[in-house]
Amino acid sequence: MKREIDLDLKQRAQKVLPNGMYGHESTLLLPQSYPQFFSKAEGAYLWDADGNKYLDFMCAYGPNVLGYADARINEVAVAQLEKGDAMTGPSPAMVELAEVMTDMVSHADWAMFCKNGTDATTMAKTIARAQTSKRIILVAAGAYHGAAPWCTPMPSGVIDEDRAHIQMYDYNSVKSLEAAVAEAGDDLAGVFATPFKHDAFTDQALPDPAYAKRARELCDQTGALLIVDDIRAGFRLTRDCSWELIGVRPDLSTWGKSFANGLPISALLGSNSTREGAGSIYATGSFWFSAVPMVAALKTLQILRESDYLEHMIALGEQLRAGLQSAADEAGMGFRQTGPVQMPLFLFDDDPDFRTGFAWSEAMLRRGIYVHPWHNMFLCQAMTEADIDLTIAAAREAFAEVKQARTSLEPHPVVAAMFASMAAE
Ligand code: PMP
Fold it and tell me: How far is residue 154 CA from its own chain's centroid?
């Protein structure tokens, strides 16, 4: 595999970008052979800066749901770009998009649009406080809701006051949620929940309906708002809010990543009970009203409603899960696949510092398959049964290779140091 261009870019980036890269796009916590820079993406495939081609199970960390550079989306986006994107006010598409999203998402009566998931979750937090005149926001420990000081997983630059009135509970635990609500007393403004537990570095878990229903009851009893953060899973589990699948309707839901197939837009949807709070806050951004992502969203959502994209992704996900399981069993490797089949996470047994998972992921990369060793992945509509067969065949070889090398695998320096410092705390 060629790496010259990527290595050169990495070196140049060290001088002009903090740490050479930041946030979830940094490859600092990925196997060392993973490319940092990409030159092209089409359908289910991705090309790095050196021209190496990969079947991409990260889908841009979620935005790619139909396939990269989908011609149907590009056509409407380019046509709108030629007419106008960021203008002195929004285009008519904004009203249409709000109508479409509130039609598709059962709990929603209104919509607000922004750029990133963090915009939507932060706005949800503010609206919960504005609507209830209370302060405390509950979030599940380890859940990710964005990169603003109130929710970032990294402590640097964050002061206690940024986190004041943000309290934790354990996902899927009725007891823990009840205790956190009791502790909040009469100051509870909102409860955040992701549709399922999709935290990094750990097995995923589907929501226990008893926990979700109790969250709804406790919010009803206290007047707090229930907020489902559907930014990662939205429209990948169902064509509605994800908790509709277990019969629980939130007051607010946050959306991002996939619903414009990769164009920059996110959304906050709310029920009528939150309209007053939503109308009272000041929320805006220079690019929040741009027309191009809105027409892309309208087209994407039309395709999501009219195609079998979801059933297709689930069928491929089932094929993948079964094929990988039998390949792992054949190799005698303890391999765990968790979460919905269309959003899988792969971890290895007896792999506390992830060295086996890292080696297996690198072995997959060398075979042209981009998987992630500790974050959930995504399937997309553009993938085919042949792509999944290819993945399973590569995995069979990768399991054998890693099994043979297992006793001589080295820990990843940055990841090992991170776990060591966490253990010391
Ligand atoms: N909530 C969830 C559940 C997410 O997965 C993410 C992003 N991974 C966010 C919020 C924040 O979204 P963004 O990175 O677009 O700000």
Answer: 17
